[in-house]
Amino acid sequence: MKKLYTLICAGLLITMTASAQTYSHTYTAVQSGNWQANAGDPTIWTTGQPPVGVCDNCLVQLIIPGGGTVTMNTSISLNSGSTLVIGSGVTLKIAPSGATVFNDPSNLPHSIYLTDVQMNQINLVDATSHIDATGLDRNLSSPTGPFGYDGIFTTTQPSPGNFVLLKQVGGTPNQFFNNAISSNGPAVFGTSLTGPSTLNGIGALPIILTSFTATAGEDVVNLTWTTSSEVNADHIAIQRSVDAGSHWSTIGTEAAKNTTGTPTDYTFADTKPGTGTSEYRLQLVDKDGKYTYSSVRAVRMGQIGAVSVYPNPASNYINVAISGKSTDNVLIRLYNQGGQLLQTRNVPNAGGTTVAFSVASYPTGNYLVVINAPDGSKQVSNVLVSK
Questions:
Q1: Is 249 found in the same domain as 353?
Q2: What are the phi and psi torsion angles at 188 (to 5°)?
Q3: In CATH, what number is assigned to the domain containing residue 318?
Q4: Are residues 246 and 368 in the same domain?
Q5: Which long-range contacts (CB under 8 A, 24 or more apart) does 36-44 make?
Q6: Same domain, yes or no, for 193 and 333?
Q7: What is d(CA 331, CA 354) in angstroms, rounded to the nearest whole number?
Q8: Partners of 54 in the beta sheet?
Q9: What's the Rg (C-alpha) of the chain?
Q10: pLDDT tens-digit profile of 249-269?
Q11: Cα dihedral value 189, 193, 196, 202, nearest 10
Q12: If DSSP states are collapsed to H, E and C, what string results for the chain?
């Protein structure tokens, strides 16, 4: 395993684990307030508060109905394929901490760290999603003022035991070597960032992907995706895995169109899909050779076709749509996050059907939709119910 630097009490250290296709932990904030609740404050999290320090393979969602502000008043490093989603109408406000080092547990910076090894990223979903780090410029005249250790950082490790932090969003200074300032320039994106945009361990993605779907047809899998911006982009490689992500092969490429500010649609047909479950992802490559990956879409060519669950998040109902032409019966079950079975539907001739489930009476939280076919195959989808 590779070890990288992420904030823990003894220093900045991350233990990297094998890449996973699903998240091990999900944390959802549905109201305005402090990221870390102070004494006497209500928590904003419905599924438990993300840990201080390292968050391994986490999905952190800021989804506030009607919009709101979450104030970052702690420190977290997104590790092992973690994602922070800043939802529509939501502002992530970085509050000044006054910290002068990264590894003082009594005064942690108010910061988020993204490593450059795995797909750890921050997604701002649309033009109403913001990161606000105004007021964080280094203040040399006041020893109690902010010294620039707060903000959104990407990390690299030039040699064992050493780390470099490059500030993507925040005030000056913009670069640190270990705990020492190595550059006094401005942050890459200054003191604020507005979506739609995606940051990962190498900074902003050359291609901003807004949607990606994989749908099973008859002897074909149809892939569609949409980008909202392409800057310095070279091409998009379509990749497939038939062994649960252990190995990936490129089955096609599409030249980037380098549009900016305009939705651009792409389609690709896999006319020779494997039997059983195939997984698909997009490799987004810029002209400098840097690249990142989309999320993974799984399609089973068998008794259960591609499954989509929408709307997500949902408030009153969800639809479970099953593609394909299967004449087999499937069993659809809805569970809460505690594993309690809430609803069951036995669906005959399931291919091409859509089944509605009422969720209006359920509390805010994460739920699982589990679909079983007679051949033993199973598909699981996660859906957020938000009131």
A1: no
A2: -55, -45
A3: 2.60.40.3080
A4: no
A5: 36/73, 36/74, 38/73, 44/70
A6: no
A7: 13
A8: 77
A9: 22
A10: 999 999 988 776 578 899 999
A11: 40
A12: CCEEEEEECCEEEEECCCCCCCCCEEEEECCCEECCCCCCCCCCECCCCCCCEEEECEEEEECCCCCEEEEECCEEEEECCCEEEECCCEEEEECCCCCCCCCCCCCCCCEEEEECCCCCEEEECCCCCEEECCCCCCCCCCCCCCCCCCEEEEEECCCCCCCEEEEEECCCCCEEECCEEEECCCCCCCCEEECCEEEECCEECCEEEEEEEEEECCCCEEEEEEEEEECCEEEEEEEEECCCCCCCEEEEEEECCCCEEEEEEEEEEECCCCCEEEEEEEEEEECCCCEEECCCEEEEECCCCCEEEECCCECCEEEEEECCCCCCCEEEEEEECCCCEEEEEEECCCCCEEEEEECCCCCCEEEEEEEECCCCCEEEEEEEECC
Per-residue model confidence (pLDDT) at position 209: 74
Clarify whether residues 240 and 346 are in a common domain: no
Distance CA 138, CA 135 (A): 9
Q: What's the rounded Cα separation, in Å, for the pair 241 and 297?
A: 10
Sign of the dihedral defined by the CA atoms of residues 45, 91, 314, 79, in that order: negative
Is 369 exposed, middle or buried, given 0-12, 13-18 or 19+ CB atoms closer than 10 A? Answer: buried
β-pair type (307-310, 317-322) = antiparallel
Report residue 157's pLDDT band, with 50, 70 and 90 as the boundaries: low
Query: Which amino acid is it at 73?
Result: N
* Identity at 260, one-letter amino acid code: T
Given a contact cutoff of 8 angstroms between Cβ atoms, the answer to whether 112 and 52 are in contact is no
Question: What tokens does 3 get?
Answer: 């070890």
- 208's tokens: 């901003």
Q: How far apart are CA 53 and CA 40, in angstroms?
A: 22
For 79, 162, 291, the CA distances from 3, given in Å and listed in that order, are: 11, 11, 21
pTM, two decimal places: 0.50
Domain assignment of residue 247, given as a range: 207-301
Query: What is the token pair recorded at 78?
Result: 């997104």
pLDDT tens digits, 285-329: 877 677 777 878 888 776 566 688 999 999 999 999 887 666 678
